[in-house]
Amino acid sequence: MVYLLTNERASIYLGVLSYFYRTMDKQTEKVIKHIKDLENRLGYVDNNLRYIKVIQALKYWLEKFADLLSNNQALQREYQATYLSYFYTGCGFSFYDRVCNSILEYKYGNRPF
């Protein structure tokens, strides 16, 4: 009887855990989709206000992506290539660094338009 109760608890725990990972996976996919959409919009901005709004939104979503992966090793393994493409580079600045530098440049008065 005790063995049966622990199996039921284990199956419930695994069910909740799998639901949690599916939910986190959907959230992560949604965040990546937002980042890619903002990257595309960045190429079509036509004035300074739209430019800074897109850059600030990119920074927000990149930080949200890093935050989602920070405590979950399963998601870190699954999205490692995407994470590396945004936050690491072989030489120069990463994509995230370029976004932050663009915000600083804008703040100091260097406008792209």
Please provide a brief summary of the model.
With 113 residues, the chain is mainly alpha-helical.
Describe the structure.
The protein has about 110 residues and is an all-alpha fold. The protein has 5 helices and no strands. It has helices spanning about 1-40, 50-70, 75-80, 80-85, 95-105. Helix 1 (about 1-40) packs antiparallel against helix 2 and helix 2 packs across helix 5 (about 95-105). The chain starts with a helix and ends in a 6-residue tail after the last helix. The mean pLDDT is about 85.
Fold blueprint:
Elements: H1 2-42, H2 48-70, H3 73-78, H4 80-87, H5 95-107
Helix pairs in contact: 1-2, 2-5
Along the chain, the helix and strand elements come as: HHHHH
Radius of gyration: 20 Å
Q: End-to-end distance, in Å?
A: 73 Å
Helix content: over 70%
pLDDT < 50 stretches: none
- The helix count comes to 5
Query: Could you describe the largest sheet, including whether it forms a barrel?
Result: none
- Tertiary shape: elongated
Residue share in β-strands = under 5%
Overall strand count:
0
Structural class: mainly alpha
Could you tell me the mean pLDDT? 86
How would you describe this structure in keywords?
single chain; 113 residues; mainly alpha; elongated
